[in-house]
User: Fold this.
Amino acid sequence: MTVEAEAGTHARVRQFTGARTRVVWCQQAGEAGDDVFGRGRELQLWGYDSEDGRGAQVILDTFSNYHRPMITPKGDRIIYNHLPQQMINVVDWNGSGWRSLTNGIAVDVWRDPATGIEWVYRMEKEIKEFQSGPLTRFQLDNPAVSEMVLNRADITWDNVQLSADGTRASGQFPHPRAGFARVPDGEVSVLGRGCWTSLAPDNSYLSWIFDGPHRNLHLHAPDGRSWTVNINHAPGIDGYEVYHPRWSNHARFLAITGPYKTGDIRKNLIYFGGPAVEVYLGRFSPDFTRVEEWFRLTDNQRADFFPDVWIEGGETAEVALVPREDPAPKTESAPAAKAVPVRVRLEGRLVAATPTPSVVSISPYTQALVTYVYEVVQVHSGECDAPKILVAHWAIRDRQVLDLGKEPGGTYALELELFSDHPELEGERLLMETDEFDLPFYYEPRP
Assistant:
């Protein structure tokens, strides 16, 4: 279910979140909408306050760089980066009180529960694309006071977030090795492959990794459980790619942008953005197994990127997962072998093919899968009752483009396994140029 924001609907936003809500993001001027990573100078700083009745409003209208805007824990100020200058700035919610703080790239703002001091976490410098460091922090109201947090130079800043107690930070070390680091000892736990990591804003240490297809979150609980939550089926997103997923200061709410459906699929749709990219708010179900409702906050002809959400009192919300049942007693017998995926052998007529992207366009990924749509002609072994299926093929492996040797209209022998039986693919880049997202989804293991 999705609720769409309109002028004068502040009461509906409050009803959706249960409290006063502020959202900040950067908006790109013009129709291109292609500054998805917030590196250009044609951006404005925008915000939304559920209590002022004004709807979406510009906070800083000067066209400049407003990379990764973040609302402070008290909800009254906004931290953002001027990325070309690698300078961190702050401004009051009403647009006054602007000042530069220090150099670097701000990645999170955290309030010490013991002292109430607000700290800005920053990367001191960008080493190369998708790698930066070290991670330090400074006091928002006294930038001269700074401390080392993680002394390493391989951190990907999309997306670093702190737990409420400040002892864990989500991140990639570097992309696509995704997980979290313990602070301040620096021990890194890699949970999987992917991007845009995030950490619940309480002390549950629940975390997520955004998958390579840019359609799902893979949640990881500290007791070892993991599961997948889809985030690209909100009405208005309609199965296309999404981006910029970020947990709010309230554990039940997140923000994303989308849909990404403009441009040349061979060059990665995320890079193209487009004027249809809007800000969506999502509310997790109490058990965090799904997003139970969506709220489309923006509806304009400009691309909106990097949303951050602040909900009054959100810092008191906590994740309440059902405790994991005790595992079965250990025995001296050998561990059970991993289940072998069931294979289906069939002939399929190729109906539509996603073009193979260039190696450069998928950076920092080094390999990619593309999806083809087939009509099932004949099943030779295994079970497949669907008349049409979606198949993921490797198109790039280790920066080498593969010749798939398939053309639309041709009929091909395929040996397939369910994509869902291959969790190792969760963090791989997957491109999908089709609107038939609900077809049974298979994977061809070779080449």
